[in-house]
Amino acid sequence: MFGKQAQGIICGIAAAVCYGMNPLGATALYAGGLTPDSALFYRYAFAALLLGAWVAARGESFRLTRREAAALALLGALFALSSLTFFASFRVMDTGLACTLLFVYPVMVAAIMAACFGERLTWATAAALALGLGGIGLLCRGGDGGATGAGVALVMASSLAYALYIVALNRARLACSAEKLTFYVLLFCLPFVLLHEALAGQPLPQPLTTLPLLLWALMLAVVPTLLSLVLMARAVRLVGSTPTAILGALEPLTAVALGVTLLGETLTPRLCAGILLILGAVALITLAKPRPA
């Protein structure tokens, strides 16, 4: 029904929207007393259980070669580092602002692909980056929950780790399905989260003491984790790292939409201009002709 390019774009857009819902679940768990490490542990553990059951039900083998195991362990470490720093930033700055600042990662992806792998930046990619960053600049607004030095440093570290994750995912060229790949990425994330938690003086994840906390943890596991990672893995395979990263402009757009609809934030002309620029960036990537592989 849809060509390869169209499927990749649809997957990239859906992955970005799903990932943009991270703050919704994270802040709810923080309000219930959980630390970022505990929230991430439940996010990954529940997602891995659900995805593992799905892979088993399809009859797909869980076996890995040494090369696949090494690549997936690296992907798990990068994704854990990105998530740990991103979730920690929610404690020291506005969550919507953290989501908008995270969008620096497409620039990092494009720079890494150009510098290390000789990928040529087309006019459409360069224009999309400029429009997207302009839109993000308009969405980034100060206030009581404005950016702090520590918050910006955490989000920049998260952006770099996420950019390296996307590039590594593209270059690894793993033959396993997106579901199996994501299952192992989540599984390899868990030891890094537990190690970080132990070093922080919290040897065990905090318990989920109420039904709402359990439901928020499941929401984090399914929407911005399981769905987002599976869809992103498919998008990277279909359209490549840089277009997938630029489609991630919809992540902060989702955060703004949630803020307006659920948190009572005001949709100002500045926000509208930023949204239009971001949609322009996505439209450029969507309409541009695919480069030869």
Word description of this protein:
This protein has 293 residues and is mainly alpha-helical. The protein has one domain (4-287). Helices cover 76% and strands 0% of the residues. The protein contains 13 helices and no strands. The chain has helices at 4-19, 22-31, 36-57, 66-89, 95-101, 105-117, 123-139, 149-172, 178-199, 211-239, 241-247, 250-262, 269-287. The radius of gyration is 18 Å and the shape is globular.
Main attributes of the structure:
293 residues, mainly alpha
- The share of residues in extended strands comes to under 5%
In total, the number of strands is 0
Provide mean pLDDT, rounded: 81
Helical region count? Answer: 13
Could you tell me how far the N terminus lies from the C terminus, measured between alpha carbons in angstroms?
22 Å
Q: Which sequence of SSEs, written as H and E, runs from N to C?
A: HHHHHHHHHHHHH
Number of domains: 1
- Please state the CA-atom Rg, rounded to the nearest Å: 18 Å
State the helicity in percent bands: over 70%
Shape, principal axes of CA atoms: globular
By helix and strand content, what is the structural category? mainly alpha
**Spans with pLDDT under 50 lasting ≥5 residues?**
142-146
Largest sheet: none
Structure summary:
The chain has 293 residues and is mainly α. It has one domain.
Topology:
Elements: H1 4-19, H2 22-31, H3 36-57, H4 66-89, H5 95-101, H6 105-117, H7 123-139, H8 149-172, H9 178-199, H10 211-239, H11 241-247, H12 250-262, H13 269-287
